[in-house]
Design a protein that fits this description.
Length: 118
């Protein structure tokens, strides 16, 4: 699978990248929301993992951009904000999954595997 990771926290970004590469996935990194949206315009991505709060464009804006492009890409939202309103808003906008930070990389891998069989 080709997986886009949009995350401005370098430690989290590199942790997820390392785990995904170890599992045999191809990884594209974006360190802000604008970069992620530009990447989505030019690359074929099977899955996107995005933080909610990022510079230049939020994870919600990335989710909206994917829908506006007409792409059917599952999106896993990461957030340190576990408020119910944020979670419900992400799902209303089409998020496939939501994980509250901090999280286990192994838990993330289990959730990703659900989408690799589709």
């Amino acid at each position: 699978m080709v997986i886009l990771i949009a995350e401005d926290d370098e430690l989290i970004l590199k942790t997820i990248e390392h785990k995904l590469l170890k599992e045999g996935h191809e990884v594209i990194l974006s360190r802000n929301g604008k970069e992620a949206i530009e990447t989505l315009k030019t690359e074929n991505v099977d899955l996107a993992i995005t933080d909610i709060m990022m510079p230049f464009a939020s994870g919600i804006e990335i989710l909206s951009a994917i829908q506006a492009m007409g792409k059917k890409i599952p999106v896993i939202i990461l957030s340190s904000m576990g408020q119910e309103e944020v979670v419900l808003n992400a799902f209303d906008l089409g998020a496939a999954d939501f994980i509250v930070k901090p999280f286990s990389p192994n838990e993330l891998m289990l959730r990703i595997k659900r989408f690799s069989t589709k």
